[in-house]
Recover the amino acids of this structure.
C-alpha cells in the first residue's frame, strides 16, 4: 500500500462500474474483478450502490494521508476515486450512460461535499475528463453536474421564490450544501 499526503489531492474523479444495471454489485464484487485483472485490491476509494449505500474501497482512514488509488491512469497519486454501480445495460455493454438513481446522486453529492472538507482544493471531474483518458465513463458530465449542485445549493433565492429543487438533489442535501458553500465562500 502506498500512502500519500492529503495535500497532493487535486481531483475527485467520478466513475461508473460498467456493470449492467439489471444486476446488483457490491464493492466486494468490484474488488474481486479488479484482483482478477491484476490489481492488489479495488481501485476506487468509494463505491456507491444503486440504493445509495456508500461502501469503502481504498483506505482514507489515516489523518493527513490517503492510500493511492488505481482508477485514473496518471492521476492516481493525486486523486480520489468514487465509483457508482451501473453505467451500462446488459444488452449494450459498450454503451455507457448515466444510470444513477436519485439515491446514488444524493449519496454522491454528500460524499463529495464531505471529501471537499478534507481536500478543499480538489476539483470534481469525470474519468473521461482526465488527461489521457479514452473512455465514456462516468456516462455524464461530472463537472457540469457538480457545478449545478453547487449552484442550487448557493442559490439563496430558491426558497424565497417558491422554486423547488431539481430532482437530482434532495432538500436536506441542498441545506447541507448551502452550509458548505457558505463556509467555502468565507475561506
Amino acid at each position: 500500500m502506498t500512502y500519500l499526503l492529503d495535500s497532493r489531492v487535486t481531483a475527485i474523479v467520478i466513475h461508473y462500474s460498467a456493470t449492467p444495471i439489471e444486476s446488483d454489485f457490491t464493492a466486494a464484487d468490484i474488488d474481486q474483478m479488479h484482483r482478477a485483472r491484476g490489481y492488489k485490491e479495488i481501485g476506487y476509494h468509494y463505491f456507491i450502490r444503486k440504493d445509495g449505500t456508500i461502501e469503502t474501497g481504498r483506505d482514507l482512514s489515516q489523518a493527513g494521508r490517503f492510500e493511492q488509488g488505481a482508477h485514473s491512469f496518471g492521476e492516481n497519486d493525486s486523486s480520489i476515486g468514487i465509483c457508482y454501480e451501473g453505467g451500462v445495460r446488459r444488452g449494450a455493454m459498450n454503451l455507457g450512460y448515466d444510470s444513477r438513481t436519485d439515491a446514488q446522486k444524493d449519496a454522491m453529492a454528500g460524499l463529495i461535499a464531505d471529501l471537499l472538507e478534507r481536500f478543499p482544493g480538489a476539483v470534481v471531474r469525470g474519468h473521461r475528463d482526465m488527461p489521457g483518458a479514452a473512455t465514456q465513463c462516468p456516462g455524464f458530465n461530472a463537472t457540469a453536474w457538480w457545478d449545478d449542485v453547487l449552484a442550487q445549493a448557493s442559490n439563496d433565492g430558491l426558497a424565497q421564490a417558491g422554486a423547488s429543487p431539481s430532482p437530482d438533489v434532495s432538500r436536506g442535501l441542498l441545506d447541507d450544501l448551502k452550509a458548505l458553500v457558505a463556509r467555502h465562500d468565507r475561506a
Q: What stands out?
A: Confidence is low (pLDDT under 50) at residues 156-163. Residues 32 and 42 are 7 Å apart (CA to CA). Residues 102-118 form the longest helix (17 residues).
